[in-house]
Amino acid sequence: MHVIEFHGADAKPVGSRAAGHPVDPISEILEAATLLVGNRPVLLAAGSYVLATAHLLEQDPLVWHEESAGLYHWVQLNAILVQDRMLEPSGLWLYQVQPNEGEKAETSGNKVTSNELRIRLLEFRAELCKAGLAQVRRHLSGRISGGQLTFQHQLVKGMVADILTTLYMAETLPEDRFLSANSGIPTERVHAWIHHELDEAFRLIQRLGGGFGFLRQGVSAYTYAGQLVKNVLLPRKEDY
């Protein structure tokens, strides 16, 4: 993903105002998508990485560690914050975590499953895509190209339609009853396919935004956060 740094006097972080337009805070989108168990957030450690926010960590979260197939309290983990300047405008924190020596995971019964947490992060990525599209729409609103409103161009309409189709698929496919009942289609494959479709939707959003679509404080913050979710969730050894 290509991103342009912009340090103008009016540059504001994502979640406050970007390019003069209000935007949805990325950190709040993650918090809204997070599973709660007993009023405590449950984060997913897929591999050794966890996505969090300052507010989530203040709530003493639980962490479902996939390798251990159990829950840990945050204090039971050795958590190292990954320094990533691209995440600064989003309010997201990326941690590399491992259970402290001697710590044992708790079983959760039926309260927590890896699949549910993965679906919630997939939904989070879809919400990022939706917010990025809304931001581009505000940016292009009222703009004229070739003597007509930009959004009246057939090419632009087609790109927006493709993005909306992908978002609809992302919202409905994980819970599709046919796919759930068909053991020949692994859930992981379905999720991977949706993630790759979202890749294309994010690319279209950046193209629609033009130069604005590549500002770190703007649309690219949504694209980068979404790509990070995909990288955390999809196992590298699999060729999807």
Structural key phrases:
7 helices, 11 strands, 240 residues, 4-stranded mixed β-sheet, alpha+beta, 3-stranded antiparallel β-sheet
Order of helices and strands: EEHEEEHEEEEHEEHHHH
Largest sheet: 4 strands, mixed
Give me the number of helical elements. 7
The first-to-last residue Cα distance is: 19 Å
Percent of residues in β-strands: 15-25%
Q: So what's the oligomer here?
A: single chain
**Shape call:** elongated
How much helix is in the residues? 40-55%
Rg calc? 19 Å
Mean pLDDT: 80
Notes on the structure:
This protein has 240 residues and is α+β, with helices and mostly antiparallel strands. The protein contains seven helices and eleven strands. It has helices at residues 26-33, 54-58, 114-140, 154-172, 177-181, 187-209, 219-233; strands at 17-18, 21-22, 35-37, 40-45, 49-52, 62-65, 70-73, 77-81, 93-99, 144-145, 148-149. The strands form four sheets. Strands 3-4-6-7 form a four-stranded mixed β-sheet. α1 packs antiparallel against α3 (114-140), α3 (114-140) runs antiparallel to α4 (154-172) and α6 packs antiparallel against α7. It is elongated. Mean pLDDT is 80; it is low at 1-22.
How are the SSEs ordered, and which strands pair?
Blueprint: E1 17-18, E2 21-22, H1 26-33, E3 35-37, E4 40-45, E5 49-52, H2 54-58, E6 62-65, E7 70-73, E8 77-81, E9 93-99, H3 114-140, E10 144-145, E11 148-149, H4 154-172, H5 177-181, H6 187-209, H7 219-233
Parallel strand pairs: 4-6
Antiparallel strand pairs: 1-2, 3-4, 5-9, 6-7, 8-9, 10-11
Helix pairs in contact: 1-3, 3-4, 3-6, 3-7, 4-6, 6-7
